TrEMBL record:
<dbReference type="Pfam" id="PF01638">
    <property type="entry name" value="HxlR"/>
</dbReference>
<keyword id="KW-0804">Transcription</keyword>
<dbReference type="InterPro" id="IPR036390">
    <property type="entry name" value="WH_DNA-bd_sf"/>
</dbReference>
<keyword id="KW-0238">DNA-binding</keyword>
<dbReference type="InterPro" id="IPR036388">
    <property type="entry name" value="WH-like_DNA-bd_sf"/>
</dbReference>
<protein>
    <submittedName>
        <fullName>Transcriptional regulator</fullName>
    </submittedName>
</protein>
<keyword id="KW-0805">Transcription regulation</keyword>
<feature type="domain" description="HTH hxlR-type">
    <location>
        <begin position="28"/>
        <end position="126"/>
    </location>
</feature>
<dbReference type="InterPro" id="IPR002577">
    <property type="entry name" value="HTH_HxlR"/>
</dbReference>
<dbReference type="GO" id="GO:0003677">
    <property type="term" value="F:DNA binding"/>
</dbReference>
Length: 144
């Protein structure tokens, strides 16, 4: 255990590193990563890979409603951020398989908790929506 007192410069450097990432700050690099994770398709793609590796078309069938283009873009962003690993198998024709990295697994575990929480509480959500709609009229549906 280090019992030395840090210099003011070292303490300042440490404080700067600890405060370096703030998702609420406009220019923070964590903000677009959060968007990749929690965007319309990110959570679903990660959850679709949670039980094991999958090829592109199997993942597309799992994530009902995602277009080929959006799935490809989502996978590229998640791969770039270090959550997804892309492996090209040298067979004819070449096969591409996607899996979660260790960072992807630990992050997805937290997202799975959120998904399970949401699914368990959907009756409350639906009741709240119904109460709101009765008070304020039917809202324009935002499915997208």
């Amino acid at each position: 255990m280090d019992t030395t007192t840090p210099t003011p410069e070292a303490a300042e450097d440490r404080a700067a590193r600890e405060a370096a990432f703030d998702v609420f700050a406009r220019a923070c690099p964590s903000r677009p990563v959060l968007g990749h994770l929690t965007g319309r398709w990110g959570v679903l793609v990660l959850a679709g890979l949670y039980d094991g590796a999958a090829r592109f078309n199997a993942l597309r069938r799992c994530v009902d409603g995602v277009s080929e283009k959006m799935l490809a873009q989502t996978l590229q962003a998640l791969e770039r951020d270090g959550f997804v690993h892309r492996e090209v198998r040298a067979v004819m024709p070449p096969q591409v398989e996607y899996s979660l990295t260790e960072l992807g697994r630990t992050t997805t575990a937290k997202l799975i908790d959120l998904i399970e929480h949401l699914e368990a509480h959907m009756p409350q959500v639906l009741a709240a929506q119904e109460r709101h709609d009765r008070r304020h009229g039917d809202p324009a549906r935002d499915d997208g």
